[in-house]
Write the structure tokens for this entry.
Amino acid sequence: MKLYSSLGPNPRLVRMFLVEKGIEVERIHFDIIAGGNRSDDEYAKKNVMQTTPTLELDDGTCLTESTVICEYLEETHPTPVLIGSSPEERAETRRWARRIDQEIAVPMTMGFRGGAGRPMFEPRMNVVSTEAAAELSAMSDKHWIWLDAQLGGKDYICNDKLTLADLVAFCFIKFGGTVGWSLPDGTDNLARFVAHMEERPSADIWKQEE
């Protein structure tokens, strides 16, 4: 398998998932700052959206979207379990991963693209207005505070063990740290969660040079 990767929370989510699974793949890195993924005609054939990550299977099939790739890896490499050992656990993990993605990661990303990241993203894609970007960032922060309350004193977000939901949350918190954002006030539980997650070998991906 080959992983077409880059900077950013979604490629690193898949890379962490691979490390947690103990799966090694060839990795092809794109410089997204220079727009390398969007100027490669061959890559466009593999991923029509030209986003990262893309997982190319040995038969040439290409999978896109980070959570879809993680779902595939869970099905083909079921241990260690990172989504769930039962229908109930899998439903709970997917519920939390979707909540974090839709309510936190999406507005956070859109806010960054239309705000601090505007010089890079505006020439390449549609971005929201600067006013909307500020509103989206505030919305995301509000939901980080909500997630902090849901986490409470637990080590993990759901199922009392590491799951995809934890990796999604951790990757977007770490991404924020790379662009000048920090957890909002009143999120001590999430700060503790981050410190706990950073002890995992897979978190070293955030320390590596690209």
User: Anything to note?
Assistant: Residues 82 and 163 are 4 Å apart (CA to CA). The mean pLDDT is 96.
